[in-house]
Amino acid sequence: MPLTYDNVVSILAEITGMDEDEITPQTTLLDVEMDSLLLAEFDVILAERHGVDLAAGLDLTPETTIADFVHAVAEQSSGAEAAPSVMGAL
């Protein structure tokens, strides 16, 4: 399943207990009470469902918006998917 904004919001709603409609692109990680434990849970779910590992770390602050968070996760997702094809070309 491709990683989309809706997928990320769905996972965030699942782990925070918030309604998906409450999470907008302008919502911050502070608004969803994202802490290191929730981020670790998010990472596990993301790895299971989308094969994306955030272990490399993200540059996040409590003021990071969901739109910025999705963008950062998508960048890591593309990097993770690109690595095998680059290796195969060598």
TrEMBL record:
It comes from the Bacteria. InterPro entries: ACP-like_sf (IPR036736), PP-bd_ACP (IPR009081). Residues 2-77 form the Carrier domain. It holds the Pfam family PP-binding. This is Acyl carrier protein. It comes from Streptomyces lanatus.
